[in-house]
Sequence to fold (379 residues):
Amino acid sequence: MDYLLTDEQKMLRDMVSKFAKEEIGPVATKMQAEETFPESIVQQLGELGVMGIAYPEEYGGAGMDFVSYMLAVEAISRYCASTGVIVSAHSSLVVDPIFRFGTEAQKKKYLPDLCSGKKIGCHALTEPGAGSDVGSLKTTAKLVGDKWVLNGTKHFITNGANAEIAVIFALTEPEQKTRGISAFIVEKGTPGFKIGKLEDKLGIRASTTAELIFEDCAIPKDNLLGELNKGFKIAMITLDGGRLGIASQALGIAKASIEDSIVYSKERQQFGQPIANFQAIQWMLAEMETEYEAAWLLTYRGSLMKDKGMKYSKEAAMAKLKASETASFCANKAIQIHGGYGYIKEFDVERYLRDAKITEIYEGTNEIMRLVISAGMLK
Fold:
């Protein structure tokens, strides 16, 4: 599908693919097994401009577009889905809302370090009792003098243990539910802000998923992000872009599943010939590739619409829905093609299946994606 890409986009994709293959691929399995956050790799990605691809150079970004970002996240996730989601959560869910809704002072203060990868960001919306139901948030923010005082607990926060900058959502008018949510920027080290437990996950184990705890955490009044009580809107707009990031991560997992299956099926001999000669294997590969390309085109469309400033909520949900289910489908087929070897950790395909499942859950479950899509159809 290179015909859809500009020369600059292809060069960026190839550069990131080369880096991911040479620097991330060889250590991905070890990082996952040991649950090691790839700090040095993230720093190198920052030096390559990947942590701020789609943001202006004046704020430390690479000055490229969102399609380029999509290509980069896919290329990284092809070798390590953990690193892919680190980049996606940082860029889509932290850099983007600060760039879109922040004051000029906030942009100048936070974006250069975030876009360069010197500091990592996390996005804290989810709580133990508020996942899909954002209106059930319990974390509060009260204005006391010239400080906002935060109290509450956030749950399942990607990059939470490693982030220096957090975008937090809290109730400023609790009785208003979603109409009383505001967004804030909170820096690591602020008194009253601490990291709780780290989750022991099925997949993406080199990416930290943490609990964030706020106990009388006082932040400057100027750390309100966007307008007061407009946090729900900020969260929903931000999640549209985040869903394209997760779709891109899922594409990388699907691509890895396909490429590994092609190599294995050509090498594995049964009944005196490579199993790639058998129609059953050929049909599985054909289905995997067809699903992947359909998902890729949906994700490309959503990314292009974002670049053009168009409304793309429905398209982002469609991309995330299709790509995530394609990742699980392709990873499952890859294990089937590998047979018994696919079920052991000597081969990477078992990791692809474990990593794929979460793409159907975070950034909005696929059940919520279906609601978003149907709402866009019926309005």
User: Anything to note?
Assistant: The chain has a mean pLDDT of 97. The chain has three domains: 2-119, 122-231, 240-378. The longest strand covers residues 147-158. The chain is about 50% helix and 15% strand.
